[in-house]
Amino acid sequence: MLLKEIYSPIQQELINVERILENCLKNTKHKSILKMSDYLLDSRGKRLRPILAILCARASGGQKSQPINHQLIKIGTALELIHTASLIHDDIIDHARLRHNKPTINCRYGSDASIALGDYLYSIAFQLISGCGNTDILECISSATKSMCEGELLQVLERDNLDLLKQRYLLIVKKKTALLFAASCQAGAMLFDCSRAVQDMLKEYGLNFGIAFQIADDCLDLIGKKEKLGKSPGADFRMGELTLPVLNLLSKNKDKNLIISLIRQPDKQDVFKEIRQRFINSEAFIKTKEDACNYIRRAKKSIDKLNESCFKKSLFALADYAVERL
Q: pTM higher than 0.90, yes or no?
């Protein structure tokens, strides 16, 4: 199923997210900030976090009302701003030059302005959330944001650690990526005052979806094409970040010592090509896809008891999309 078909039940809500996002970013008199904001708006991503918040709110069976609908859109917009801010800071840390097939913010405007822009987006996001007047949702999203920042810090500190364990990798992924997905799903249900059981179902869906999505992303960073990724492949490898594909390659390859010696070489570009080819032709590739699929199965199982609806169907299809990219 195509993404636009997955999103079709909430098309109007997504249009409203884009409208509020644009209004927030253009709510300034400073032309220099407006210029950066316009550039940011022209580099749109998939909007997965607001989509999950809206789909989960609808799948939870919450009744529509105008005030609640407006708050849901504001929360969805805030989640996208938090995610965008994290990407801007990630690109600075990773010295990335491309995203969505365009120069990164840091490449275009420099690291100093990009750091400040990321902070600015965080402030707008939490202003939107606090404006909804729901302290439980504020706590849910702020806690996930703290974990996301902690995960990024852990990932940087674990660079070039060839003794990194799979459990440690999964902890980083959970913090850096999956918990914000989980918070997106839970916040949608919380807004409609759903039972704790329903909230937990959707939170579990988001957590497992997020882990699978990041595993797939890490795999694509190793095997993907620049045109499809929208950025240069191998960014994680060049920064010394050992992702699950490489960890699986080390565990599944008879030439483990050779792989380690290759990773330790300073010329990362030539080494990346060899590691990439070895991974594609190994059991590690199959194992990595299996790992991602296992988390998708867990995600689907967690919402199996939800009432049938087009929104639940979209959640199932979105889960499939996460691994179908491989």
A: yes
